[in-house]
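Follow-up to my earlier ticket, as requested here are the two runs.
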Amino acid sequence: QTRISCKDVPAETLYDVLHDTRYRKKWDSNMIETYDIGRLTVNADVGYYSWKCPSPLKNRDFVTLRSWLPLGNDYMIINYSVKHPKYPPRKDFVRAVSLQTGYLIKANGDSACVLYYLTQVDPRGSLPKWVVNRVSQFVAPKAMKKIYKAGLKYPEWKRKHDPGYKPWVYPEQNTLPNVSLAELSVQHADSLENIDETGLTEDHLSTSDHEA
């Protein structure tokens, strides 16, 4: 769990940043690929995300059900991992599991907000202790700072990139295929292959990934 105060970024702007998959490529340097698979309701969809892990660890990916809710001037986005028959685990990734991950954006006046982030993730694989420590101490706080900086730059970027297109705000713009809840099931970690990475040492971490 972590939080960051975002000065000069309205809550609604940060909400757009977290939704906008096109913009994510601009600020999320850990992302390999992300896309929306389909929609369940006007405020819930299923999506795919793959994450570049520091070498020599294997890269991870997720298939998640995400839902969102405006709460007056505040916003909430939560997700958890699901199985989708057309998106099974891939050989080139370790399929990780989001037990529950959420963002809460609380307005702090008209032009500032506070972002809260809580995640329970099973990365699968028997990871060395140093990896877990690195993620908790460095990766999550750095990711929050990236989101804040992305929020500062988003209005200018969005003005040049289909400014009226926000299907998370205007459901009638959503052209994703419908997904039935019956097609999905909760992704349980114990049904996935376990990759043993405990033998890796921090000395072998690729230097190019230290900023992850």
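Run two:
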Amino acid sequence: GTNVLRMSSGIQIKPKTIVQKSKMSFPLLCSPEPEIRPQPKPSDKLNPKTIDPFSVYSRPPSAFAAVYAKGGIPCRLVHGSVKHRLQWECLPETVPFDPLLVTLAEGLRETEHPYTFVSKEGFKELLMVEGATEKAIPLLPRLVPVLKAALAHSDDEVFGRGLDALVQLSAVVGPSLNDHLKQLLTSLSRKLMDKKFREKITIALQNLEQYGGKVS
């Protein structure tokens, strides 16, 4: 303790705080609402066990991780005692689907926590808002290639998230997805040969047929 006091030469050095770091200007995707106070960045509230995208020793962050760390995803993970949930910084109904829905779909290929949960749950919850059909249909040309990449991924969990997202999207856009199904069926047919995926893929195909109608 004595040594610490002697090191002081009248200059008080204060460590940088997270509050200073969070003042980076990055536009949130929510519609402007003056009465709502700015929320801390999602990256400031990650679980201590969560990988730090700014770590010198970690690999360069993916595109989704970089957007998430900068506060570009207007929701964050809340750790619960039983299960986790998302907390949105604004009403999901006020969030533009373009580009957030596509960004969340790209995040389905993540393999690190919390990106896996945020992308999967965020994609699901965004498609549940009122008017989701009209907002999602124009994005299909960009969503389908991203979902195709998830379905073709070597990681089984990534494939599972991609398959769930595809069924969720189909339930929302209905027959509008039919013209894009050929791009997706190749990946599904390959996985169909694997016994551990056979039942889940079969159910997914039945759902796609139901939501897409006779044409599908």
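The only thing I checked on run two: Confidence is low (pLDDT under 50) at residues 1-9, 15-27, 42-51, 53-58. Let me know what else you need.
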